[in-house]
Amino acid sequence: MMADFDVSFPDGQYLAHGISLDTALLLADAFHKGTDPQPIIDSIADQEVREVALRITANLVHHSARGKRK
User: Fold this and answer.
1) pLDDT digits 0-9 by tens, 34-54
2) 19-23, long-range: CB < 8 A, 24+ apart
């Protein structure tokens, strides 16, 4: 089961769960822009890491900061 983390920095959540820095930054950018992260997730070669990225992304979908940049 995945622990809850502060969502102020979604890239940190991805990094904390083994997602590479480059991919974490791309996913965080998609989160803030409100764009579809699925192509980024699909590009992750390791199936376990891909599943983790998908779970984190699913948990962030309805967060109030999605689609917003400071």
Assistant:
1) 899 999 999 999 999 999 999
2) 19/44, 19/49, 19/52, 19/53, 19/56, 23/53
Calculate the CA 66 to chain-centre distance: 11
Q: What is the largest CA-CA distance in the chain?
A: 32
**What is the value of pTM for the model shown?**
0.76
Please answer whether residues 60 and 43 qualify as being in contact, where contact means their C-beta atoms are separated by less than 8 angstroms: no
* Cα–Cα distance, 39 to 7 (Å, whole number): 22
